[in-house]
Design goal:
Number of domains: 5
Structural class: alpha/beta
CATH topology of the largest domain: Nucleotidyltransferase, domain 5
Shape: elongated
CATH architecture of the largest domain: 2-Layer Sandwich
Radius of gyration: 39 Å
Oligomer: single chain
Largest sheet: 5 strands, mixed
Distance between the termini: 128 Å
Helix content: 40-55%
CATH class of the largest domain: Alpha Beta
């Protein structure tokens, strides 16, 4: 065969076959090329009987004077050096000697040296997965999928859970970073969907969730995570920091789930979704198809899982804040508005990945969308104009320089109206008009219809007129019809009673 030395047995077999077969047939059966068979017939001696060729170089060694003198000392000092790094360093030292053809020789020689003298490498130990033994959690960034929600590119990641044996998978859209609420809610939903819990739960070191936390907060997060896993009757375990392959049963699946989502988006023909719920349903359906293909294995493992507790786990973080005179509170560098009647009260917050729930004592008040401040960005405000419109109606002039004015507009049409009004007239008048429009949207519940009317007016090159909008969206007061009530005389009732008594008499 090409590239292999022939042995004595092949030569003897070829010569024996050659008496009855053609050269091609004999060569094929002996495992020789036709050319080698032809040479063998010219010299039928077996290879061991021939004088071996003396090994000598056909060209000068390009590493002469460099290998032992410079390259080996560098490898001994730092065996992790790559051939390309050595090549660049030698090219810097000897620019007149090192050429492109030098690199391949260097790579081959370095590989041989590392095999003989290099450091021991990490060994991957293949594991036999037992049903019901291990579940794994991890986060993976999928912003490169190019998903667009409500017209804006979605920077997000996935919480990814999997069973090591059967391959059951569950993903959830995570809008922020790696955090306890994202991990806890994702794990809770995955186990509830699965209907049971494995004996052990493996995660990475959660270094991203611990980043920038003070030691007391990090210790508290560790305790809460361990309590969460214990709540489901699982034993928590983590891989060593920076050693991702120890969590390989989930790491290897990240690439697969990303590819499945990317292919499903291509088949869908668009990566745009009307809202976040539509994208969540799409991702759940893609992962559900994978689970259906492994239904038999998943059902077999589900049968040996531990039963789940009836009570849900604590999947949120808690914080207590005071509502300021600005009718809002600060949480994680974000300002949130609440109804002004809560000014001065202390609220108990449950912080989830996508929302914040506010409680007054034990009474639930409201749920607010979770806001996040991007790194290096300015102040972030989560504002609901319904919370502050009553106060703005009394002080419309405050709108002009309001700190969170740009976050106040419920729809793009209102922002367009403000920009058009301040471009054409005094800011004071523009503020009064905009407060009036917001009050109209609040009082009449016509936020969407009013926005459409504002867009129509602006597209026509006109400016919104508050009086016109009030007439358009305020129902006309209809006159009450005159109703004439004729009261019968009391004697009529006496006659009815008498007639009823006569009919009942025997």
């Amino acid at each position: 065969m090409t590239g292999r030395h022939i042995n004595d047995q092949q030569v003897r077999l070829y010569m024996r076959l050659r008496t009855d077969h053609t050269q091609i047939t004999s060569s094929t059966k002996a495992g020789l090329s036709v050319a080698t068979g032809r040479r063998t017939e010219g010299d039928p001696r077996v290879p061991s009987a021939k004088k071996q060729r003396r090994v000598y170089r056909t060209r000068p060694d390009p590493l002469a004077g460099l290998w032992d003198e410079e390259i080996v000392p560098m490898l001994q000092a730092a065996s992790g050096l790559r051939p390309i790094s050595l090549f660049d360093e030698l090219a810097r030292r000897h620019p007149d000697r090192i050429g492109p053809s030098f690199r391949r020789t260097l790579e081959r020689r370095v590989a041989e040296w590392k095999a003989l003298h290099g450091a021991d490498q990490d060994v991957m130990f293949r594991q036999i997965q037992q049903p019901g033994r291990m579940g794994l959690s991890d986060f993976t960034d999928v912003s490169d999928l190019g998903v667009v929600v409500a017209g804006q590119r979605l920077e997000h990641r996935l919480y990814h859970f999997a069973l090591a044996c059967s391959g059951f998978e569950h993903v959830e859209i995570v809008l922020g970073g790696e955090s306890y609420p994202a991990l806890a809610s994702g794990l809770e939903n995955a186990l509830r969907l699965l209907g049971g819990a494995p004996r052990e739960h493996r995660s990475d070191s959660l270094s991203a969730a611990f980043r920038n936390l003070a030691k007391p907060d990090a210790d508290d997060l560790t305790k809460r995570f361990e309590a969460l896993v214990t709540h489901f009757g699982m034993v928590p375990s983590r891989n060593n920091r920076g050693v991702a392959h120890e969590n390989g049963a989930i790491e290897s699946r990240h690439g697969h789930v990303k590819k499945r989502l990317a292919q499903a988006l291509l088949l869908r023909g668009s990566a745009s979704f009307d809202d976040l719920d539509a994208y969540r349903a799409f991702a759940a359906d893609v992962v559900g198809q994978h689970n259906r293909r492994h239904a038999a294995m998943i059902d077999a493992e589900r049968a040996v899982l531990k039963p789940l507790p009836t009570q849900p786990a604590m999947t949120w973080e808690e914080r207590t804040v005071r509502v300021t005179s600005a009718s809002g509170f600060m949480c994680r560098h974000v300002f949130y508005t609440v109804p002004s009647r809560l000014v001065g009260h202390r609220l108990h917050l449950r912080i989830h990945d996508d929302r914040i729930e506010a409680y007054l004592g034990g009474s639930f008040l409201l749920s607010l969308p979770r806001g996040r401040r991007p790194k290096g960005a300015g102040a972030v405000h989560v504002v609901d104009y319904h919370h502050v419109i009553a106060a703005l109606r009394a002080k419309p002039g405050a709108l002009a320089n309001l700190a969170y004015r740009d976050a106040l507009w419920p729809r793009t049409a209102y922002r367009r109206a403000w920009e058009a009004l301040i471009a054409d007239g005094p800011v004071r008048d523009a503020a009064r008009t905009m407060v009036g429009l917001l009050a109209l949207a609040h009082d009449r519940g016509v936020e969407a219809d009013l926005a459409a009317a504002i867009d129509e007016t602006l597209d026509a090159g006109e400016r919104p007129d508050l009086a016109v909008m009030l007439r358009r969206f305020t129902p006309k007061a209809a006159a009450a019809p005159e109703v004439s009530v004729i009261l019968p005389p009391l004697a009529a009732y006496d006659r009815l009673i008498a007639m009823a008594g006569a009919e009942m008499a025997p």
